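Key idea: predict the complex, not the pieces.
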Amino acid sequence: MSITVRNLTKYYGEQKAIDDISFEVKTGEILGFLGPNGAGKTTTMKIITCYMPPTSGTVEVDGLNNFDHSLEVRRKIGYLPEMNPLYLDMNVLDYIEYSAQLHGLDKRAIPHRIKEMVHVCGLEEVRHKDIGELSKGYRQRVGLAQAMIHEPDLLILDEPTSGLDPNQIVEIRNLIKQLGRAKTFILSTHILSEVQATCSRVLIINEGKIVADGSPQQLQQEFQGAETLTLEIKAIVENPLEQISPKLRGIGSVNSVELLSQKDSISQFELHIEKGADIREAVFQLAVSEGWVVLEMHRKSTSLEEVFHKLTTS
Amino acid sequence: MIELPNIYPIFRRELRSYFNSPIAYVVIVVFLAIIGWFFTSNLFLINVASMRIVFELVPLIFLFFVPAITMGLLAEEKKSGTLELLTTKPVRDLEIVLGKFLAAWVLLAAALAPTLLYVFTLMPLGDIDLGPVITGYIGLLMMGGVYIGIGIFASSLTENQIVAFIATFLVVLGFYLMDKVLIYAPEGFASTMEFLAIDYHFSSIARGVIDSRNIIYFVSMLGFSLLLATASLERRKW
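Result:
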């Protein structure tokens, strides 16, 4: 299941929602859409799922143009829209059955598929309840169940974890990972740790344009600035600022040294290092030769948050 | 092109949702209570054993009954966002409209069905001419169908059920009154207005004569309103 998006542009009236977006998604990729609210994530997803056509440009799913072969494309896609709309007056089983029927599943296969979805999504306890009575976490599971009932090759999830508590987020994330094998995913979010935890590739969109494309690690490297190293040392010295700091600064590629705190014999430093340099070994050797005890050493590189912030604020 | 297996789940869900909520029961009970009142008072107080009062009254009640059952059909789904989900499933927009239309139509028929009891009550009491009664019921179903089509179209235009109700009511009221204001119509328009008037066609059917003019009217009105509703759903694609 591959998706090819070419020169996609969408206007809402005068307002440009997305501007000449092109990208490809290959089978098995979990693509994370990142971007501030209103950047065009949802619009792009609505176009891929055949909800509305673009102003210009094309989308092909498995080589099928999603405007000319709308029904075929829709059969291959499982979609969880933003806000997860559900029929609150239906009970869980009826709703999953309804989705199965809409997807044209074989009548004899439906009961089995429903059972499977209820099991996979952990809906056993609530399967006879009305959706309106369910908590947000369970509703999200119902949303996922309806999106996956027909075993789609492509799952498009618009903010699948928004509004969930941290435990539920982890649960849903695990569910996605568990199902993610051999499927293609596109999911949007503005929770960056989620992207890091689940996605194999990230697209950052800002003001309708793609501003970055790559794996989370690649993006971090590409947009890396100076690194920092936090260091906690136990050393019996009277004045660490004078007795330790200059020695640390003596190590190559250290730009500056900052004393963060000092309590009894334990002092904490932050070292600012040149981009790309790794001085951990040198620090360790120095500590050994000086007779300091290294309690903690931690290297911090640019986080995805910073990359995101850099790219989406102008 | 439409496929029945796509229409069926939409129809079934909509019908279930009618009967899962109190709306259907309330509407049907009110409907039957009003008709029952007039029917029995005619029968016992004025001593008239006739279905005429039913066929005169039902079109009037439909003016309220139909907007009430159609107002939510699409407006509610637009509001809650489920329409986006539905339209990204492999079903055509026309199939969505048809599924909902059929559900409302079946509900209307279900509300009408108990009034058949009156026919059976009357049969031993007087010489009921069954012909006009049968065509009368066919006429009511057709008329209700057209109203429902208009109601679905109105419901597709808004997210607000109350707006859908009022718009439907005004439009069907217009079609209902059209042949009753002919004397005020400018010359030359009168015959067109008469042909467009729904009650004109209904009363001609209810007299026991099903003319091709009437059939053409009902079928084209229904087809037109359902196509408008479909086009309105597709408006997101414009």
